[in-house]
Amino acid sequence: MQDAIDELVQHYFMDLNYKMASVPFGLTNLTKIITVDDTKYVIRIYNPYTKHAAGLAFESQITTFLTNKKLPFQVPVFLRTREGEEYVQLSNGMLGAIVSFIEGDVPTLLDIQQAVEYGQVVGEISSTLLNYDTELLEYQGISFSEIYHLHPLANRLAVTSFMENPPFPIAEANLTFYQEMISLLDKNIHELKALPQQLVHHDLLIFNLLAQDNRIVGVLDFDFTSMDASFMEFAICLNHILQMSSGSLEMAEGFIQGYVRYRKSSLQEINQLQLLTQVYHIAVLHFYIGQHHAGIDIKENFTYILNQFHVRNDWLNRNGLSLKQLLEFYLLGDTEVY
Fold it and tell me: According to its UniProt record, which protein family does this protein belong to (predicted)?
């Protein structure tokens, strides 16, 4: 792969004298940090199963749009090659690109104020993407509700085969739970089509954010951005705050307080929170199944997500009423959005 990296760098810089370092992110694609003339960049060679030319052009359009909005945080910007292109098709057929580097560390989610700031970032990204004129897009990504199309190696037959004959031990209770959720989703997935739609990042986890001096300054990884139910972004990030806080309603409320500064929601959306949460987890599981069929070891990640899915669904069953009251108070009420 070193030859491919050298080939990619040649398209951007005359001098191949660069330093390279590993990164704590980039599980889907080959991702490294390179330093050229004392300036850092992020170099990426994309997984051929999950990124194609239309997807790369789409990602560049989205990050350019967000950059032009002068948000209080940065997003990676695609550099132009010496030929003026946004990405490169390498001689091995894979696609590669170099994007801007954002200095910072992964923020923490340890107290209410950090939950509020996290909510603000999610709300502002969502509010900004709401205003993107999607009619200008030739490609709009793949909605997470398209659970059998998120990975080319994870169609319905491949997923069914995997779950009926898992390549590693899966607890029987989790297998039964998954089948129950799939059956439920088959009956109710049409309800998501009636929700407001917009561009959704889908991966605004704390691990894809960067902070300096306890303030979030960067938002990364737009690989899974697509048109989807607007409230999906909220559902994914609420799940994340609950996961990181062991189910704290206080931390969830802090997140909601931050989010509502930029976004409101409808009762129709709030009523579909649990279904959206189920779709999210199933989508991630199916993506991992695709990675398995591509030869990647998914045992740890798949097991973690399936366990989290079970825990979160049980938590929502127990705490749904209290959570709904919070959501209706903030997202439907007269709480000021500024």
Answer: Belongs to the pseudomonas-type ThrB family.
Q: Is the pLDDT of residue 337 over 70?
A: no
pLDDT at 321 over 70: yes
**Vertex 231, ends 227 and 235: CA angle to 5°?**
115
What are the start-end ranges of the H helices in the chain? 2-10, 53-68, 112-130, 156-164, 172-188, 190-193, 231-244, 249-259, 267-270, 273-293, 299-327
Q: Which long-range contacts (CB under 8 A, 24 or more apart) does 318-326 make?
A: 319/247, 319/249, 320/274, 322/249, 323/249, 323/252, 323/273, 324/270, 324/273, 326/249, 326/252, 326/253, 326/256
Q: Which helix (H) or strand (E) holds 36?
A: strand 30-36
Q: Do residues 142 and 150 make contact, with C-beta atoms less than 8 angstroms apart? A: yes
In 3D, which of 159, 170, 336, 184 has the Cα closest to residue 274? 184
pLDDT at 214: 86
CA distances from residue 282 to 51, 91, 227, 286, 317 in whole angstroms, order as listed: 20, 35, 17, 6, 18
The model's pTM is 0.95
Predicted confidence (pLDDT) per residue in 83-114, tens digit: 999 999 999 999 999 999 999 999 999 999 99
Q: What is the pLDDT of residue 338?
A: 44
Rounded CA separation 27/264 (Å) = 33
How is residue 63 written in tokens?
A: 């990050």
CA distance linking residue 218 with residue 235, whole number of Å: 21
The mean pLDDT of the chain is 94
Pairing of strands 88-89, 197-200: unpaired
pLDDT per residue as tens digits for the range 151-176: 999 999 999 999 999 999 999 999 99
- Contact of 145 with 189, CB cutoff 8 Å: yes
Domains and CATH numbers, the chain: 2-100 (3.30.200.20), 112-332 (3.90.1200.10)
Report how far residue 152's alpha carbon sits from residue 129's, in angstroms, rounded to the nearest whole number. Answer: 27
